[in-house]
Design a protein that fits this description.
Layout (H helix, E strand, L loop, with lengths): L3 H15 L8 H15 L4 H4 L6 H9 L12 H16 L4 E7 L5 H17 L3 E8 L2 H9 L12 H7 E4 L2 E4 L1 H4 L2 E5 L14 E5 L9 H14 E8 L14 E5 L2 E5 L30 E2 L5 E2 L3 H10 L3 H9 L5 H17 L3 H14 L4 H13 L3 H14 L4 H14 L2 H17 L14 H15 L14
Parallel strand pairs: 1-2, 1-6, 2-5, 6-7
Antiparallel strand pairs: 3-4, 7-9, 8-9, 10-11
Helix pairs in contact: 5-6, 11-12, 11-13, 12-13, 13-14, 13-15, 14-15, 15-16, 15-17, 16-17, 17-18, 18-19
């Protein structure tokens, strides 16, 4: 059993080496990892083991016990679709030799998925040359990647035509054919280690997905700077959807492509800035710093409440004319404009003033194109305008940016129901219910879309019942048995 002091110094040592957040290293996982390494060396106690941990090799092996290496081919398939359909045509217009890096490649499935995607693209865009390198901190994972044999579970997302074309059975496993395997080379590399070697610079495309989920804030920023430096001008960075906002550091431009976002290095990318937390629903938000403006209250008394706070309160009581009056009184404070435009869009939407609502949404998106609430509101506006397909795209972008926010899932279900897409509608109603079950109980508060959790829950149950063939889900806050 490790003492609190031992656990603390282990966490600090591992975090400094690998970038893993100390908070992500649970007591039980740490105990088990150390016990396994002590058994390998025939040692007893951390004091005997500590000198070995001063060597990168042993520290690497310990760190690998603390991360999840489970992956599969074509994970987040839309990234590979966007690579082939949107990114490659852009890059190939300027050069016919491309360099790709699968950073944090684990056991190689992502790197080989890139190779298959590019081999398929050669038939579409004509011959072009490419090199792919996959790197990972875990030497054992890199060895498995080089062996390139995978069980059926790793191929569960590979379409049957591609499986038949690019894999061959070897006992119970499947191995990529030589043109795929030979297109990739692998190396052991610490993403947070010393300077980038020459082989990892001048990249056209970097995939670095599901790598930073355990990183602390400083490590995320250090890695983002390193990846930005590794890209050539015009190069693209793909990260996992849940990591998008963690990589939005201002070094690379955030580019919307269909229902996803990627980063691009170019002269239009903004200057580096500190990262902001992922966007969250803004009503009811924490108070902003007081603005100097006030107004006369009832009986002529001076009301020192800032106009934005008064606008929020008016929205809560559904006094939409008052919301707009208070927003018009806002002083020229740039820090408040984003929330003000979202609140204005939501208010105008409630008044069915759709063109004005869309204009407010567009202003918000011009400022922050990655803001989930703005895409959600734009989706609702488009739905009311009768543009169901466009609404679907906006709502999908909102989900991509904030996957655990229930409102986009619900309104996507509603839009699919409008389109007669019953299976997709049922899936999104189910997603909404699953998210609601995991949320702690919320007081009924009027948010930007005007629906509290209980209203959403009832609406999902009712619509699923109408769609038919659905077992009644458990009440909110309970699990099915």
């Amino acid at each position: 059993m490790l003492s609190d002091h031992d656990r603390a110094r282990l966490r600090n040592l591992i975090a400094a080496y690998s970038g893993l957040s100390p908070a992500s290293l649970g007591d039980e996982a740490l105990e088990q990892a150390v016990a396994q390494r002590l058994a390998v060396h025939g040692l007893e106690g951390l004091d005997a083991y500590w000198p070995l941990l001063q060597q990168d090799g042993e520290l690497n092996r310990l760190a690998q016990h603390l991360t999840n290496k489970e992956t599969y081919f074509f994970r987040e398939e839309r990234h590979f679709r966007l690579l082939r359909e949107r990114v490659l045509p852009d890059l190939l217009a300027g050069r016919r030799t491309l360099r790709l890096w699968s950073a944090g490649c684990a056991t190689g499935e992502e790197a080989y998925s890139l190779a298959i995607t590019l081999l398929e693209a050669q038939a579409q865009y004509g011959p072009f040359a490419f090199t792919i390198i996959g790197t990972d901190l875990d030497a054992a994972a890199v060895d498995r990647a080089r062996r390139a044999c995978y069980g059926p579970r790793s191929l569960r997302r590979v379409p049957e035509p591609l499986r038949e074309k690019y894999f061959r059975a070897k006992g119970p496993d499947f191995c990529p054919i030589p043109p795929v395997k030979d297109a990739v080379r692998f190396a052991v590399h610490n993403l947070l280690g010393d300077d980038l070697p020459p082989d990892l610079t001048g990249m056209d495309i970097i995939f670095c997905r599901n790598v930073t989920i355990y990183f602390d804030e400083a490590a995320r920023d250090r890695l983002n700077a390193r990846l930005a430096a590794a890209l050539r001008e015009g190069g693209y960075l793909f990260v996992a959807s849940a990591e998008t906002m963690g990589h939005n550091r201002g070094r690379l431009a955030l580019v919307p492509l269909d229902d996803a976002f990627v980063f691009r290095k170019g002269p239009t990318a903004p200057r580096p800035r500190r990262a902001e937390p992922p966007p969250r629903p803004r009503l009811p938000p924490p108070p902003l710093r007081p603005a100097p403006a006030g107004r006369q209250g009832a009986g002529g008394a001076f009301d020192p409440t800032p106009p934005l706070d008064r606008a929020r309160r008016a929205f809560q009581r559904e006094d939409y004319d008052a919301v707009l009056r208070e927003l018009d009184r806002l002083p020229p404070d740039p820090s408040a404009r984003q929330e003000a435009d979202l609140l204005r869009a939501a208010t105008l939407l409630q008044q069915t003033r759709l063109e004005e609502a869309e204009a407010a949404c567009r202003r918000a998106l011009d400022r922050e194109p990655w803001q989930a609430e703005a895409h959600l509101l734009l989706g609702l506006i488009r739905r009311q305008q009768g543009q169901a397909e466009a609404a679907v795209q906006s709502l999908k972008q909102a989900i991509y940016l904030q996957p655990t926010h229930h409102h986009p899932h619900f309104f996507l279900a509603e839009t699919y129901r409008d389109l007669g897409a019953v299976r997709e509608a049922r899936r999104e109603y189910e997603n909404t219910l699953n998210i609601l079950r995991r949320r702690p109980a919320q007081p009924p508060t009027r948010n930007l879309v005007g629906l509290d959790d209980e209203m959403l829950h009832r609406a999902c149950l009712l619509n699923l019942e109408r769609l038919g063939n659905w077992p009644p889900p458990a009440p909110l806050g309970r699990s099915r048995t």
